[in-house]
Structure formats: C-alpha cells, structure tokens
Amino acid sequence: MAIIIDGKKTSEDIRLEIKEKVNKIKEQGGKIPHLAAILVGNDGASETYVNFKVKDCEQVGFKSTLKRFKNTISEKELLNEVEAINNDPDIDGLIVQLPIPDHISVQKVTDMIKPEKDVDGFHPINVGRMAKSLPSYISATPYGILLLIERYKIETSGKHCVIIGRSDIVGSPMSILLSRKAYPGNCTVTLCHSRTKSIKEMTLQGDIIIAALGRPEFLTGDMVKEGAVVIDVGITRVPDPTKKSGFALRGDVKYDEVAPKCSYITPVPGGVGPMTRASLLLNTLLAAEKSIYK
Amino acid sequence: MAIIIDGKKTSEDIRLEIKEKVNKIKEQGGKIPHLAAILVGNDGASETYVNFKVKDCEQVGFKSTLKRFKNTISEKELLNEVEAINNDPDIDGLIVQLPIPDHISVQKVTDMIKPEKDVDGFHPINVGRMAKSLPSYISATPYGILLLIERYKIETSGKHCVIIGRSDIVGSPMSILLSRKAYPGNCTVTLCHSRTKSIKEMTLQGDIIIAALGRPEFLTGDMVKEGAVVIDVGITRVPDPTKKSGFALRGDVKYDEVAPKCSYITPVPGGVGPMTRASLLLNTLLAAEKSIYK
After folding, report:
1. Is-above-0.80 flag for pTM?
2. ipTM confidence
C-alpha cells in the first residue's frame, strides 16, 4: 500500500518550527522577519491568496506589509514602489502577487525586485543561481516538493525521475533541481511536455513521477509502474453537482487507479498545495537570516 | 551512411558572415564590436586559448583588448579591473579566461561582470534568463551545438534527446535549451550523469545523443540505436606513439562503431570544438548590437 504524503501535516510541522525560531529571535531581541506583498487590482483569487500569505505571517510571528494598488497604477509607479521596498531595511522579502495588469511588464517588475528579497525565487539571478547549484531562493512549489521528499526520506539518488510539464514555475525548475548533485537530487531526469511523443512510454520508466501539466486525471494507472513515487502538482476545479460548492478539486493524477501501485503518493488536495505557503515562509526566514546572500 | 557534421566548415561560414556584417558596420561608420579578455598568470593552455580568441577577433574585424595580470594580483584588484571594463563604453564583451588562481573566487569575478557584457554567458543572470526562455547570452559550447543543429536543419521537435554529463558548461544548459519551446528545442530531454543506473538503457532510446562527460570513447556502438543523431562534446588527449606529438585527440564517442548507425554525427576533432570560438564571436556581435539587453 502506498504511503500517502501528508502535505497538510508537513506544512503545519514546518510552520511550528518557524514559529519556534521566531520566538527565539524575539527572546534574543533579534530582527523579526518581515514580508511585504504587493497586490494590484481586485482579482478575487489574488486577494484570497495574498490574504492567506498575510495570515500565515501573523501565525508564525512574522511582520507583514500588504501594499495594495489600483489597476490603473502605471508601470513606472509600480517599479518605484518595488524600489522603495528594496530600499527599506526593515523588509526582508517581497512578493508581487500575479497576475498584474497587462500594461505592466511582469518581467520588468520581477527584474526590479532585489535578488536578496526575491522570496518567490522568480528573479533570473535566483533561477540562474539554482541552475548553477549556488545558494538561491527556490520558488514555492518546487521548494515544497523538495521538502516533502526530504521529510519523507524518499531516496532520489540514481532514480529515474519523469516530470510531465515544462512550466517556468514547476516542471522546468524541478528538472534542474532533481538533476543536481545534492539530496534531494542526483536523479536521472526526463522532462516531458506537450511535444513528447509518448508520455506513457516515459512515465512507465519513472521511479519518481512529477505530474505538473494541469490536466485533471491525466496520469492513469496504466502509465505507472509498481512502486513508483508519484507527486501530483495539478489542481483543477471540475464541476461536481454532488458538492455544495458545485465543483471538486482534481489533481493531474487519477488517484484511485494510481495510488494502489505507488510506494508514495501525494493526494489532491492536501499534498503539494499546502506546502507552497510553508515554502514562502521558509524563504522569508532565509531572507531575514541572510542565509542565501551573505 | 551518417552525414558528418562539419564544425570546421560551419564555423568558417559563420566567421565569414560576421566579417561581412562588420564590414557593413564599418561602411556605415558604426561602432566596431570590441571584445576584452582578461588573462591571469602564465598557464600555457590558457595563453593559447586567449591568443586564439584575440586572433579570431582580428580575423573578423573586431577590436580586441587583452589584459594580462600576474598570478599575484589580488581578488580586489581583479574585481576592480572587471569593474573598469564594465564602465568602458567602447568595450562590448568581456571574458575572463579560466582557471584563475585559487585565491580569487571565480564566482565573485563572474558575478562582477556586467550581464550585458557577459559574452561567455556564465553570469547567473544569463543562465537564469536562458532557463526562463528570455533573451540571453548562451555559453560557447551549448551555443555551438545549437548552431550545428540549426545549420544542418536537424529536426528536434518531439525527439528524445539523451544527454550524458551534467556539467554547468555543457550538459546542464543543453538540457534546459533543448527542452524549451523553440527551435532547436521541443525535445523530450533525459539528463544522465555519474549516478545514472544504466546509461545504456537511456542512450538506446535517444533520437539525439549528446555525449559530454569527458571519458574517451565512452559511447559505444551497442549503446546507440539506428538513425540517431550523435553530438560528441568530449575532447581528451590520449597517448599515441604513432603520432609525432605523442598523443591523439579522442571524443566521448567510439566513432568507428557509432558512426555507421547514425543519421548525423560530429567528428572529433572538427565537430563541436571549432564552433565554440565562432559562438564567442557571435555573442560579441550580439553585445555590440545590444540585441540581448535592449
């Protein structure tokens, strides 16, 4: 039977550990970690996400600053706001909640964030440092996956890891991270995507499979070998009239078919999802401790 | 029979094209591309390499500046020299010939080079921009391989590319580049290395194989399927009493066995090797044209 990787529990463990560290910092009169978030406009989902992040900070004892701007803010004004936070010595980490309005370049905003404060790990310097195996902020989802592998002591060295999906925020960085000479890492990594001829041919070889393509229940039982570790990054709302909300959440993995074949599997919800928020808190702590950039 | 990819001829074609472009720039009174190279110490191989690069510049009509320093130069002094070149508006590209003495941090020196002038493509910003599919300088060997694939119009989309070796300068960037949504690219990429359990099992699946591990004649005929494209990045001196020099150059591919099975193959010498110098010239031209960083 598969061991079900409990992302909810793991993320709560991590929050508790962070909280204890913050308490120690407070006792010693040190500087309290401080996360700033920029939110532009009134997108409902974005508001929810940012509010969670602010609450997460409160819960572990971080300071947080939420800067809200109207949809009409100009690119230049927003860049100036980023610059002001870059220069604010009390703020350790800065995230800009995406999406931002079309008239503002995501790349320009990302590039403007001081790498030392880029706790989302999206700045090219942090991506490049990751690829060069230098200390860097690792973005929330990949970092969350690494933490799950670590906490469940899953062997990765020499394993064949098959990743489905080459997005900038999950598939591509995971392929870099798991190839590195490190733990978790030292995998033989195969990165599959929309142009891959036979994804099934690849996944059947996978000792570890990371499904991150965003297609509900894509990975079926016949695509997975016995004993595989399956990490499900997908989370899609599908209509479900039996639910009060009218929808259900589905991962990229057909859980009922795949789970019986696995050694480890992450559920959806409650697997990778909750880890992303814990990762952001960890990165903010790393920023406050100046662990990445000395 | 395999088509032999002629890197010598291709690199000469590219040099001619660059020379023509420089002639046009001169006619129009534009700014002549200018490469600066820093060489520390008296390592024989390094001197040879740098001298080639300077000669290459002369040949295509670039300006070049060679700055030589003694082995005793301090880290701070070297960083100041880099800074001076960063601030010199006439110099478009800067390379620091490696290795440098142990008392100087390669990372610090690399990080100090202005990304806009980093024509070796080693700065984390350029690596990160590459990983994010943003315009970037691609380092010489990977760029040379892409150019060969392009010039020989080798189909890459949907192909399974198996890379052996995860070095920062070849294997790892190649895995990123050939996974991208681009041409050359859109490959399903498998990155193998010293921890891979069965490299042969992987290479037998490869439509394209890139051997970049630095072990002479590692890839043998039984590891390659019929019709594969084989790119040999290795170049190792092995003793050879029949040669006047006392040594011969060997690639990572056992050419006599592998070539008959291939659709395309690069020889050693005369395959990837000559392309790296052409790549550096192209990057310097891109720098002068401000094509990467607008």
Report:
1. yes
2. 0.96
